[in-house]
Design a protein that fits this description.
2 domains, Arc Repressor Mutant, subunit A
Length: about 375
């Protein structure tokens, strides 16, 4: 029973998310298709595990190449999924990340075909279960295939560290770009990737441990299968859940044509643009547009987006998102302090202040004012 739960739980999770994402083929959000492929590869991996741990060794020997292919594709697919979310175009050269998966899966397939049926069973018992890589009395071809498998495990460990670092870098770059482009960043940032990366780190450490322990250890201690199974099931479910909620942005964060002329942006131009920008916010109250983007401002002021971003960053020591939210919170505080607005709900104040949702409003208000808007309203009413 415990073994069945351990083997089936990651299969059900990856099958569920594979269906959810792959039925979206043909839609514009390619990132979800990429995530669906990742889940499909994970599904193949865990089906292979289930076949192995149910002692279907003859059958497993024929599908081990798919196990290797999926194992060495998981982390590159995760990285490419994050890239697709960060609005970078995935070009053909990105396929280089899958070279190890292809090479080792083909090598394992060729080695399996060359081995006799008896040698395949020896390979499974002595290499995969007993980890007797250095045993000299094993058939030569069995030892060769064993070293191919060992090399694939080493590559897998290297991938873990490499793609963990790359994933953090992609998420951080994406988030920096988002806050300098959008005033409403809800479901646009990759903040959840930080949580994923923490789980990723612990899962990766577990993966490395399980690589050294070997599957043979779990064939004799089936209850312990719950540990790696639980880790991977949780990891994949959280990726799927957040990936399903994530909005992919149809915008390229490339510099405008005038970006190369930033050095020519004279002090006089900067002061004039700053004056226009403040007027746009103080008088025109452009910030009440919940979908306000920095491009909307640059188009209104007939200037370059890069100039606006540079101005806000250097003159106000903020990113675009922080700059807009400062105005929105000032507006919200004014509304909350006005007795004529006592019948206004927090949701309505959030809306007319320019926030996309009450959750976003509450989070930003608390970070700037130090308390939720409801508490701020109650305290000011008590004082009045």
């Amino acid at each position: 029973m415990i073994k069945d739960i351990s083997l089936l739980s990651p299969i059900f999770v990856t099958l569920f998310w594979s269906i959810i994402f792959l039925i979206q083929i043909g839609k514009t959000d390619k990132s979800k298709i990429n995530l669906g492929i990742l889940m499909l590869m994970a599904l193949i991996l865990y089906i292979s595990h289930a076949i192995f741990f149910n002692n279907l060794f003859k059958f497993y020997s024929y599908i081990e190449c798919f196990y290797i292919l999926s194992m060495l594709s998981l982390y590159p697919l995760y990285y490419l999924y994050l890239l697709s979310l960060s609005t970078k175009k995935l070009v053909f050269k990105k396929l280089v990340h899958f070279i190890p998966a292809v090479i080792f899966s083909v090598a394992i397939f060729i080695a399996t075909v060359i081995l006799t049926p008896e040698e395949r069973i020896i390979y499974i018992n002595e290499i995969l279960i007993n980890k007797s890589f250095m045993q000299t009395n094993l058939p030569f071809l069995v030892r060769i295939k064993g070293f191919i498998f060992l090399a694939s495990r080493i590559i897998f460990i290297i991938q873990i560290g490499y793609y963990l670092i790359k994933g953090v870098s992609v998420a951080n770059t994406h988030n920096r770009q988002i806050v300098n482009y959008y005033s409403n960043t809800e479901r646009k940032t990759l903040g959840w990737v930080k949580i994923i990366n923490i789980i990723f780190l612990f899962t990766s450490l577990g993966s490395i441990a399980f690589v050294f322990i070997g599957r043979g250890f779990f064939t004799h201690n089936e209850a312990l299968l719950l540990i790696p199974s639980g880790l991977y099931t949780m990891f994949l479910f959280i990726i799927g859940f957040n990936g399903n909620r994530q909005i992919r942005l149809n915008v390229e964060f490339k510099d405008d044509d005038l970006a190369s002329n930033l050095n020519e942006f004279k002090n006089g131009q900067s002061k004039n643009l700053k004056k226009q920008l403040i007027q746009l916010f103080d008088i025109n109250k452009i910030y009440i547009n919940s979908d306000l983007r920095i491009t909307s401002i640059s188009e209104t002021l007939k200037t370059n987006r890069t100039y606006i971003s540079k101005l806000i960053n250097e003159e106000f020591k903020m990113n675009f998102n922080e700059f807009v939210n400062e105005y929105r919170i000032k507006e919200a505080k004014k509304l909350l302090l006005d007795k004529n607005n006592n019948l206004y709900t927090i949701e309505h104040i959030a809306e007319i202040s320019g926030f996309g949702s009450v959750n976003s409003f509450t989070r930003v208000f608390k970070s700037i004012v130090g308390m939720p808007p409801g508490k701020f309203k109650d305290q000011t009413n008590d004082l009045q």
